[in-house]
Amino acid sequence: MIDGNNFPGRRGLISRRTFLQLSAGAGLLAALGPTALRAAPDTLNVREIPASGQRIPVIGLGTARTFNVDPDNAAAMRPLEQVLQNFYDGGGRLVDSSPMYGRAETVVGRLAERLDIADDLFMATKVWTSGREAGVEEMATSRERMGGGHLDLIQVHNLVDLQTQLDTLKAWRDEGRVRYIGVTHYTVSGHDRLTQIVEREPIDFVQFNYNILTRDAEKRLLPAAADNGVATLINEPFERGSLFGRVKGESLPEWTKELGIESWAQLFLKFIVSHPAVTCAIPATSDPEHATDNIGAAHGPLPDADQRERMASLVSSL
């Protein structure tokens, strides 16, 4: 987690280290961290955060339901450590959590420290409470749980006490206590309200559900984010796993090979991140092999508009 006063963009100064990296032509390394070369950055798809121009890989890591384990239980932590390692080695950087996810923030913080990658990760979490003081306390606790450094992104989770928490977050952003701020929801019923917020509030990120079968966000929310310079994080990319049930026993068509797609998970993810208004999708997993598979979707060619519709028609027909 980079110091909030040193990130490139409209709210802070660029660090000396970042300046030197950019000056040397290593813009992608500056965005991803000093060890990003192991992830073959020439094949890694990244998107800009409109508020700053910072680039992040198009696949992140969600932690809902999967990282809520006892952080003192070595057996429970071991596979999650490998999940985070595989994600990182594949080029992944953005990790999204929340106080709502039980002990997930603490698990992320401890594993990132253990793997010595905390400074390279883009740490995102949320505030999920009512009242100004309660919000301030919760966000301070989240910061400590996730490692104690500056958080990159804090979002108002499911729009709880929206205006109160947004007012605090705006002040924190101005003070350099957080780099970016945003809002989240996880159902289609929340899209209209999210669209209104994107159009009227100076936020940096909006997080919502979108996938190959649930495409409601394409109508207004994704265009609004693009028009207003708001980055997008995509949750529920697999529709809580139901998409895998739909394709169970089905083989991938030969034409998917031209897109470097090696699994149904990669097809679902490449469909999402190929939308020009999508910044990053955040699938969650507790399986190290799935983590490797998911981050693989950040690499190689992305489908064009015609290929996207062919993918959607394929899944719809099954």
TrEMBL record:
Q: Where is the NADP-dependent oxidoreductase domain?
A: 59-306
Keyword tags: Signal
Q: Which PANTHER family match?
A: D-THREO-ALDOSE 1-DEHYDROGENASE (PTHR43312), NADP-DEPENDENT OXIDOREDUCTASE DOMAIN-CONTAINING PROTEIN (PTHR43312:SF1)
Q: Which NCBIfam families match?
A: TAT_signal_seq (TIGR01409)
Protein name, UniProt field: NADP-dependent oxidoreductase domain-containing protein
Q: What is the residue range of the signal peptide feature? A: 1-39
- Could you confirm whether the keyword Thylakoid appears in this record? no
**InterPro entries assigned:** AKR2_Oxidoreductase, NAD(P)_OxRdtase_dom_sf, NADP_OxRdtase_dom, TAT_signal, TAT_signal_bac_arc
The record's listing under Pfam families reads: Aldo_ket_red
**The keyword Signal appears for this protein:** yes
Output the lineage of the source organism: Bacteria, Pseudomonadati, Pseudomonadota, Gammaproteobacteria, Oceanospirillales
